[in-house]
Design goal:
Layout (H helix, E strand, L loop, with lengths): L1 H11 L3 H41 L2 E5 L15 E2 L1 H9 L4 E16 L2 E10 L7 H5 L1 E4 L9 E5 H6 L7 E7 L5 E12 L4 H4 L2 E5 H7 L5 E2 L1 E6 L5 H7 L5 E5 H4 L1 H39 L1 H9 L4 H36 L2 E2 L13 E2 L5 H18 L1 H8 L3 H7 L2
Parallel strand pairs: 4-9, 6-8
Antiparallel strand pairs: 1-11, 1-12, 2-10, 3-4, 3-7, 3-11, 5-8, 6-9, 7-8, 13-14
């Protein structure tokens, strides 16, 4: 076997430039695979984490009749005394945060500009609001007793040409089906770097949201964050369900889960296409090698070398090309993934609804993906040698000697 690899190394060295570029093609293919896999994994993970932190939480407790698609404000569709229930839930050991939130639909207007928005009433002191507090660009964060202030997302503020301290008119639906309109001061402008969320979400203190929507001591849901999201199902089972519905993060983010499954299946096809293109380079390299060494192959066959041994020689050459290409590919891919992980790629507002994709996409390469793609690349490189190896093994010694003259 050692002798076989010595011969393979010598044969590849006959045309070092061709061998190098063949290995480089394989390296670029692997590097591209690593980059694509890491970007897809990073974006799916980032979208899920963003949706959990900003929108769904790990769990939500709602009234049994509540329908989030209709954003109902009827008292029978809301949770009564949500603060008391939140205090009971946060006492559970796996629970990190439990806070009430009220959701309503509204319209915000400034001068001649009018935009439909989603109003969220929050407890400003809750730790669940950390992403918005940390994302403040200008102005101040809300306080629980603020009766005239709201927070706007940066894209919404820019669209309406507003800044902290400006006054706007806000219309909100109420529990009795009417519409209430009041002036509000823009206390501050925030950015979560999720344009799809920031451009249509307005925050106000929970007490004020209850007052303007006439829902009094009610909330749409209890927003719950856990210390470990793997405990979601167990905590959900421990919560009362006779009068309430308990939704886990997986149930509330089915679109992201389905999109991830679709992306996974689609990316496998992309992987095969990239590897197939890369494999053609190795096939061409080895076929050229076969025709250049026709007389040599004929001599080897004439002195008794079996066809299987000749095939093994070409597989050895392919494996050496694969090893060299993989090593270069891991280095090149590592640099690309490092850049994509730390700096990311700026895409701005992609306009995708239902999935919280940020302005900048970051990569996240898992060890399993790296190992899988490396092994797959090596296997494809070996399979690429099959046809040239068969071509060489099936040569008749006499014909090979005559054609090589």
């Amino acid at each position: 076997m050692i002798q076989l690899y010595k011969m393979a190394y010598r044969d590849l060295g006959r045309n070092r430039r061709r061998s190098f570029f063949s290995a480089l093609a394989l390296a670029m293919g692997l590097a591209l695979l690593l980059l694509i896999a890491s970007v897809v994994e990073g974006e799916m993970r980032g979208a899920m984490e963003s949706n959990i932190r900003l929108n769904s939480g790990h769990l939500q407790v709602r009234a049994a009749s509540y329908n989030e698609d209709k954003t109902s404000l009827k008292w029978e569709d809301l949770i009564e005394n949500p603060g008391e229930m939140a205090a009971e839930i946060v006492a559970l050991e796996p629970v990190k945060v439990a806070t009430p939130r009220l959701f309503a639909s509204g319209i915000i207007s400034s001068n001649d500009n009018t935009v439909g928005v989603r109003i969220i009433g929050i407890d400003p002191a809750s730790e669940a609001n950390a992403p918005f507090r940390e994302g403040m660009i200008s102005g101040d964060f809300l306080t629980a007793d603020d009766r005239q202030g709201i927070l706007l997302g940066q894209p919404l503020a820019e669209k309406l040409n507003l800044k902290a301290g400006d006054t706007v008119q806000l219309l909100a639906n109420t529990s009795n089906g009417d519409v209430d309109e009041q002036p509000f001061a823009v206390r501050g402008v925030y950015s979560t770097h999720i344009p799809g969320f920031d451009e249509n979400t307005v925050f106000m203190p929970l007490l004020k949201a209850q007052a303007i929507t006439k829902t009094e001591n009610h909330a749409s849901a209890l927003f719950i964050l856990l210390k470990d999201r793997a405990d979601a199902a167990a905590v959900a089972a421990a919560l009362p369900t006779s009068q309430y519905q308990v939704k886990t993060w997986e149930q509330m983010n089915e679109l992201i889960v389905q999109f991830e499954q679709f992306a996974s299946a689609y990316m496998k096809l992309i992987y095969l296409i990239i590897l197939a293109i890369t494999a053609t380079v190795i096939v061409n390299t080895l076929i050229m090698s076969v025709y250049e060494r026709t007389r040599e192959i004929g001599i080897l066959a004439a002195i008794g070398m079996k066809g299987s041994r000749i095939m093994a020689m070409f597989f050895a050459e392919s494996s050496l090309l694969a090893v060299g290409g993989i090593l270069m590919g891991l280095v090149i891919g590592g640099v690309l993934v490092y850049y994509a992980t730390n700096t990311g790629f700026y895409f701005g507002n992609l306009g995708i609804t239902g999935i919280m994709i940020g302005e900048r996409i970051y990569a996240s390469l898992t060890l399993s993906d790296m190992i899988t793609l490396t092994i797959l690349t090596f296997i494809v490189a070996l399979l690429a040698a099959l046809y040239p190896a068969l071509l060489a093994a099936r040569m008749e010694p006499v014909e090979a000697l005559h054609s090589g003259q």
